[in-house]
Write a structure and sequence with these properties.
Blueprint: H1 2-12, E1 15-22, E2 33-36, E3 39-42, E4 48-52, E5 57-63, E6 70-75, E7 80-85, H2 104-116, H3 122-127, E8 133-135, E9 145-148, E10 151-152, E11 159-163, E12 166-167, E13 190-197, E14 211-217, E15 225-231, E16 235-243, H4 247-251, E17 254-265, E18 275-288, E19 292-306, E20 311-312, E21 320-323, E22 329-332, E23 350-367, E24 370-387, E25 402-423, E26 426-449, E27 455-461, E28 464-479, E29 482-497, E30 500-518, E31 521-531, H5 536-541, E32 550-560, E33 566-577, E34 581-583, E35 589-591, E36 595-607, E37 612-625, E38 641-650, E39 655-664, E40 667-668, E41 676-677, E42 680-690, E43 694-701, E44 709-717, E45 726-733, E46 738-746
Parallel strand pairs: 1-7, 11-14
Antiparallel strand pairs: 1-4, 2-3, 2-5, 5-6, 8-9, 9-10, 11-12, 13-14, 15-16, 15-46, 16-17, 17-18, 18-19, 19-23, 20-45, 21-22, 21-45, 23-24, 24-25, 25-26, 26-27, 26-28, 28-29, 29-30, 30-31, 31-32, 32-33, 33-36, 34-35, 36-37, 37-38, 38-39, 39-42, 40-41, 42-43, 43-46, 44-45
Length: 747
């Protein structure tokens, strides 16, 4: 009797192991849904899953958005399945709210957007993140200014950006902490991207105040492609991704491809931008036996440009707002010389940059539900920028031309070991991770120069030596409708500048709880401690700065599918920083006091028909200095309300595209709100005709030729002929109507 009961229990607990892969590339599919009766599973990053079989023989249904669903039979005699899914129509009904995965809501949004919306630049990729806005203000070659969750995140100070596990952010960069130049990423090589908001993720440390953004490049191509693009402002782009080994190699687990692109544009400015960018990328992957996969990739990037820079408002119009010595708003007359919005005051501005990357990744199945991942990377980087935003405010004779330059070597390691414990109907996933990153700069200087780039004097000079080593433990227990994820990371920092070194250690605990009420509703709460990133020069100089001020955050949110073709993610959130940093024009980092941010995020995706899709993102934020009185303590340029959305279409005859908008509400230009950064509403259009062997496309930025400012900032500037400096907003105009035509050939 006891033996029979034991046999029955063992039979009922039979687990089917399997892997979901793409039928064309033979690569794993993460987050695929596997269903057997009332039992569900979700594939992990390796495409692997384990599913409890309810009966001796059962039908298993496998679905994933953008792939044709598949149904197979399996029983207790089946121990391992390789399930290949073929590409199919995009159907939002395939998205299932499940308790098995953490952060899956953001992956759902990114996967849907990447499947539907065509992209042909790294800027397009960044704009896909709900609530993330970018801006250029010093020519197209610089890293974009980033705005997200109530942060003017500068060029990446508060957003952790990675590609294939390699950091994009540059620590202690001469132009700004966390400088994240993503222009080396070729969009045709991107397979997926993931993002998360807040400091809630144990494997993310430095820069993860507002959140993280990670891009993963393709391990294999389903087709090769060459494209040519041309448009207004003398703009053109040549790009290609070419498979080197073919289908036979894919079948034995071996892939290799190369990619490249060349971009050129003069931009809409009166002074031609002469923006040039060249990217090359190569990747090789190979299955080593049945348990290991090796991936090797290398890339190189170079760019140069001439910048028209920022323009004070009074240089284009009279009666503009400025601030007097007492902080009061006043009206000022036009500058002695009026210029066009797309004109130039200092033609000596511009820059150039290069980056070389190498990444090696080894993924290992250690058996018995153990897996291991090892990533090693190396980057060599150079940067040179000439900038002048104040003109003659500091030096009425030579002007305020400044030169920033550095060369850098960055190398590091990310590794983790994961164990899945199947405890009856519960699953405990344990991960232990280790990372270490080293940065060394050479010839680092920030100096005053003439318009002919002749040296005048140093503002800051000296090389950086910086290390960040971290260890983290992450535990995720899925039990029925509950998923509890708890963990902590320990970060060690060593900051070196000149002959001085300082160290610091910080511990960051995290706790995320998720409850899946049913297949239509999921509630979650996230809480965690992180820290605000810091620059080695500021750490050594101190100047009243904390080395690593703590950041405390919490999210309360939901994922909701009220009807099969509507997916909604919403969250209220709060973030407190022990100390905000203010980056000043003279190269210093000043203490900015404690800050509080709170807000509301809403994202919705709706499939109206089998060919028409609608999306909307709305993001509210209130950002203030914590110690300020009511009505004061604004954080300059912090976004208050942003929204993106649109309609996308995919017809069976190959016609596809979309109409999308970007809205940024007006926001404080300084901490008293006496100056204002104007909002904007811009509409873009993309239309393609796609066939098996070719594609023809038209894209139009700023379809209605809206007059808007891409970037604004408070500057104390003095123009030639003015008696004294003036404190007011300077701006970089946004792109006017801009049409481009693209032709691609697939083979």
């Amino acid at each position: 009797m006891a033996f029979a009961l034991l046999a029955t229990i063992c039979s009922a607990q039979h687990l089917l192991k399997g892997q979901v892969i793409d039928s064309a590339t033979r690569q794993p599919i993460a987050y695929a849904n596997i269903k057997a009766g009332d039992h569900y599973a979700v594939s992990d990053g390796r495409g692997d899953f384990q599913l409890k079989l309810p009966t001796d023989t059962v039908s298993i249904i496998i679905t994933y958005m953008g792939y044709a669903p598949k149904q197979i039979k399996a029983g207790h005699q089946t121990t391992m399945l390789i399930i290949a899914l073929g590409r199919g129509k995009i159907d939002l009904q395939a998205v299932r709210i499940s308790p098995e995965s953490n952060n899956v809501s953001f992956h759902t949004l990114s996967a849907l957007d990447l499947n539907i919306r065509p992209v042909n630049s790294s800027q397009d990729l960044m704009r896909m993140v709900p609530g993330l806005f970018i801006a250029q203000h010093m020519g197209g070659g610089k890293a974009e200014q980033i705005f997200i969750r109530g942060f003017d995140a500068d060029h990446g100070t508060d957003l952790n950006v990675t590609v294939d596990g390699m950091p994009v952010n540059m620590v202690s960069h001469i132009h700004g902490q966390g400088y994240a130049d993503l222009h080396f990423l070729i969009p045709e090589t991107v397979s997926t991207y993931d993002f998360g908001k807040g400091p809630y993720y144990t494997d993310k440390g430095d820069f993860t105040t507002a959140g993280f953004l990670n891009y993963t490049t393709k391990n294999a191509l389903d087709k090769s492609e060459v494209s040519v693009e041309g448009g207004q402002f003398n703009s053109y782009r040549l790009a290609g991704v070419i498979d080197l080994l073919g289908d036979a190699a894919k079948q034995r687990g071996e892939n290799a491809y190369i990619a490249g692109e060349y971009n050129y544009t003069d931009g809409p400015f009166k002074l031609p931008e002469h923006y040039k960018r060249t990217n090359l990328f190569g990747k090789y992957t190979r299955q080593l036996g049945t348990n290991n996969q090796l991936s090797l990739s290398a890339s190189t990037f170079s760019t140069s440009w001439i910048a028209s820079g920022e323009i004070p408002e009074r240089a284009v119009a009279a009666n503009t707002v400025a601030v007097d010595d007492k902080g009061n708003a006043i009206r000022v007359p036009a500058a002695p010389t009026i210029i066009d919005r797309f004109g130039t005051i200092d033609s000596a501005q511009g820059g150039k940059s290069t980056r070389i990357n190498a990444i090696a990744k080894l993924s290992t199945d250690l058996k018995d539900n153990w897996t291991m991942e090892n990533i090693a990377y190396y980057t060599h980087y150079t940067f040179l920028l000439h900038v002048n935003s104040t003109f003659f405010a500091d030096d009425p004779v030579n002007g305020d031309e400044r030169q920033q330059q550095e060369a850098r070597d960055m190398f590091g390691y990310n590794g983790s070991v994961t164990k899945k414990h199947y405890l009856g109907s519960n699953v405990l996933t344990s991960t232990l991770g280790l990372s270490s990153r080293f940065d060394r700069t050479y010839g680092t200087e920030y100096s005053n120069v003439t318009e002919q780039y002749q040296f005048l004097d140093d503002i800051s000079k000296g090389d950086i030596r910086q290390n960040n080593t971290a260890v983290y433990l992450d535990e995720a227990l899925q039990s029925g409708k509950w998923l509890v994820n708890a963990g902590a990371r320990l970060d060690y920092f060593s900051f070196g500048f000149h002959d001085t070194t300082k160290t610091n250690v910080i511990v960051s605990p995290k706790l995320n709880v998720q409850y899946t009420a049913n297949s239509a509703l999921q509630l979650y709460i996230k809480a965690g401690k992180g820290f605000h990133s810091n620059n080695a020069i500021a750490v050594i100089g101190n100047n009243g700065l904390q080395t690593l001020p703590a950041a405390y955050g919490a999210d309360l949110g939901m994922n909701w599918k009220p009807i099969p073709h509507l997916y909604v993610n919403a969250a209220v959130w709060y973030l407190y920083l022990q100390q905000e940093f203010v980056y000043t024009d003279d190269g210093d980092i000043a203490p900015g006091g404690r800050t509080r941010r709170q807000g509301f995020d809403l994202s919705a995706r709706y499939q109206l028909t089998n060919w028409l899709f609608a999306d909307v993102n709305m993001n509210l934020a209130k950002s203030r200095l914590a110690d300020s009185a009511s009505g004061h303590g604004y954080l300059a340029l912090a976004p208050t309300f942003t929204s993106t959305g649109g309609l996308d279409f995919k017809f069976a005859n190959g016609i596809n595209g979309g109409l999308s908008y970007r809205y940024m509400h007006s926001r404080p230009g300084n901490n008293t709100n006496t100056l204002v950064a104007d909002g904007y509403y811009v509409t873009d259009l993309k239309v393609n005709y796609t066939r098996k062997r070719y594609e023809v496309g038209l894209s139009i930025e700023n379809l209605f030729n809206t007059k808007w400012n891409e970037f604004e900032a408070e500057e104390v500037s003095r123009l030639r002929g003015e008696a004294a400096p003036v404190d007011q907003m300077s701006f970089t105009p946004g792109t006017p109507f801009f049409a481009k035509l693209r032709v691609a050939v697939f083979f």
